[in-house]
Design a protein that fits this description.
Low-confidence stretches: 1-36
Oligomer: single chain
Radius of gyration: 16 Å
Shape: globular
Structural class: alpha+beta
Strand content: 25-35%
CATH superfamily: Jelly Rolls
Largest sheet: 6 strands, antiparallel
Length: about 190
């Protein structure tokens, strides 16, 4: 049996937003199973459910929801939004573009991306995803077979929500990334 652990937290983020919920969407929530329960039973996470964090991030699956280490995250980028150029030392990353248009940078190459596109980023490959020119939000889902990236998102979320009047600096983000091991900014 699943146990509710927390209500979703929705916060403002300067320049960041997520898709507005549809009128019939349920509020985002999260449920957790013990690892033994999730391995034996699995789980279904419905539309509108997940752990809502800053920067348009919704954690759909992680060890907190019952996986044994892999993560699945949905992120929505408004016009001008995107990730920093970064890499992950702990594993490969797969992106699936759900809606919107944007760009994917892999190494020195930048390409346009749109609905249905898949972006594979091998371990240690420098990459960036962004919505630089479209008024329509870019919504992607990404998967990694290691939980560190979600832990980094949670740590940044904690810092941002604990001191909402003080913007987080690039140095603070880098220190969190180094401490947890989720990603490493480059250039």
């Amino acid at each position: 049996m699943r146990r509710a652990i927390y209500a979703a937290i929705v916060i403002g983020c300067g320049g960041c937003s997520s898709d507005p919920p549809s009128p019939d969407a349920r509020p985002a929530t999260s449920s957790v199973q013990t690892p033994a329960e999730s391995v034996a039973e699995g789980f279904i996470l419905r539309t509108g459910e997940g752990e809502v964090l800053q920067n348009g991030i919704v954690v759909k699956a992680s060890p907190a929801t019952g996986t044994l280490g892999s993560i699945l995250v949905e992120q929505t980028f408004p016009r001008g939004g995107g990730t920093a150029l970064h890499l992950h030392e702990q594993g490969d990353e797969l992106f699936y573009v759900v809606s919107g248009r944007g760009t994917a940078t892999l190494g020195d190459s930048t390409n346009e991306i749109g609905p249905g596109d898949v972006i594979f980023v091998p371990r240690n490959a420098v990459h960036r995803i962004g919505n630089l020119n479209s008024d329509e939000p870019l919504r992607v889902v990404f998967f990694m077979d290691s939980p560190e990236l979600v832990e980094e998102f949670r740590a940044i979320h904690e810092r941002v929500t604990s001191e909402p009047d003080r913007p987080i600096t690039n140095e603070e983000r880098a220190a969190i990334s180094e401490r947890i091991g989720g990603g490493r900014a480059v250039r």
